[in-house]
Amino acid sequence: MARRNDVLTLAVLGLLHDSPMHGYELRKRLAAMLGSFRAFSYGSLYPCLRGLEARGWLSQSDSEAAPPHALAGRRARIVYQLTAEGKERFGLLLGESGPAAWEDENFDVRFAFFARLDADTRLRILEGRRSRLTERLDGVRESFARTRERLDDYTSELQRHGLESVERDIRWLDDLIEHERRIDHERRGAPRATGTTGGPTGSPSN
Amino acid sequence: MARRNDVLTLAVLGLLHDSPMHGYELRKRLAAMLGSFRAFSYGSLYPCLRGLEARGWLSQSDSEAAPPHALAGRRARIVYQLTAEGKERFGLLLGESGPAAWEDENFDVRFAFFARLDADTRLRILEGRRSRLTERLDGVRESFARTRERLDDYTSELQRHGLESVERDIRWLDDLIEHERRIDHERRGAPRATGTTGGPTGSPSN
DNA sequence: TCAACGATGTATCAGCTCGATACATCGAGC
DNA sequence: GCTCGATGTATCGAGCTGATACATCGTTGA
User: Fold this and answer.
1) Which of A170, B52, B135, B154 is at 20 to 30 A from A204, Cα to Cα?
2) B143–A31: do the CB atoms touch at under 8 Å?
3) Which residues 69-88 of A interface with strand D at a CB distance below 7 A?
4) The overall pTM is greater than 0.85
5) A168: burial class by Cβ within 10 Å (0-12, 13-18, 19+)?
6) How high is the pLDDT of residue B87?
């Protein structure tokens, strides 16, 4: 597992959950959402779509839904839509716990669909990610400490910067976790003193 | 170009520049240096070594240099050393300008060998990296701005965090560039007021 | 004493991904 | 009407990864 394709699968199912789409459009949406931090090539996308269709999670929507005459001359496009089974699988995949690698690789795509998960699952995923990141940080830190003396200034500066990035990611997760806990607490129990606990927007860690 | 292998090539040549080594040791050093941020598999390393040998940049050192009796029972190992041509190629590759992709992909490995470059080349590489990162940042920012309205809080938070990471990298580069300029200035001209310009250590951006 | 185990060490392979490219149509500009 | 860039589907070679195989060495502990 944890194949690159699995991430793509998750993203494709999530996007098609909203509305039917064809490959080119999907790729554009993916790029807009994850913003060239993570690109998916056609060489992955089209085979992935066919594979998902073969598994019965997608189907080609021949209806096209739009007025036929308006798009009559349009180039042939293959519009995919989610089947009932596909919707179910998406829900499972999104909330699923898996091997650490799976969860790490998938984190940002999952996070992009976070709003569809219930509060408990969100918290579980965030905390899992945090503990794995911490673990990795400790390992790298130890490895660096063991070899520090024989490194020149540039190399150790590179390492320092790398470690700092991971630390920052962990702090980001801390903010998110705290935010989740706060809104969960507000929703569950009666708010103690109104007006001070939460900010006006839903955006955590301004 | 900009193949993953090119980065490996650079790293291998750089490490062998110091002392002859065999594959396993090389991999350990690589991991210690770049710290599991970037891992190289044996499936890449061994073919890479053979390729470099075929090109005449490496040769197998059968001398083994160490007292033969002490390591007599040792498992067969293939120790590689840099040839004269290999040394030359490494110098060229390290300082070389190339397509943006090449420079980006190679940045951290190049940086790890930064101390061997002259001040001008260091500055050129840092500034190139900075301008490419800025360019990318602008593109992503614009792409995000165009789709902001239809994103939920989680997705936009993810994007914000991603942008912030890139901004932080740019600031890191700024610190490095400033540091380079300062030591260059100190070396070249007479230091104006002693004791305040540079820190005691060579490490930039504490 | 020696069996078990983990580190050392070289090597290969299936499966997968990427970047480039091909091919075709459409709308817009000039 | 001609060219150019965007839209759209599709494929392929090059090459990387993770897993695995195989073999030896040092250490640990019963």
Assistant:
1) B135
2) yes
3) 74-79
4) no
5) middle
6) 94
